[in-house]
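Usage

Read records sequentially. Each one opens with the input sequence:
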Amino acid sequence: MSDTTAVTEAEASEPVLDEAAEAGGEAASRPAESAAERIARLEREGDIAADYLEGLLDIADLDGDIDMDVEGDRASVSIVGGKLSHLVGAEGEVLDALQELTRLAVLRETGERSRLMLDIDGHRATRRSELTRIGTEAARTVAETGEPVKLAAMSPFERKVVHDAVAAAGLRSESEGEEPNRRVVVLPALSQSV
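and closes with the structure output:
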């Protein structure tokens, strides 16, 4: 075996983390759990997050209702009502910071990193729709021209939504670059690129 293809036993035992794991998930290194255990764990994360966010709202003297849900493999917490747009910030920067603080609060209580998703005033839901449209339009352009399309730099959440939209359109995509300038590149289908 050549030196370039040799894999040490230690390297082979390391967990392989995908982009979702890089975005804050620990699913790749967590032992298998039943569906009921997973839901209970995610509901607990949501409860911890809700308590933390209620405390922040009280300190800031802001009104808002907190909704919790489990969506796929993550807890989802939304703050709705009141005048909350300043908690989103320009392009969601404040929302992203609050999400990270909330994830840290969950980590402090559980000892495990969380992939919890926070939405405020429907910002992420609206952004998800926009990103799905962007991904679908880019896929359409690539299908028509056969040429790759590079999109603007995006957060891990935004890239995931675009990757899903491109896959749903029957094309492929990949991320390139380094944070914070990591972007999605939409590629022609394998049969198109040959």
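Summary fields computed downstream for this record:
- The first strand starts at residue 65 and ends at 71.
- The CA atoms of residues 41 and 104 lie 16 Å apart.
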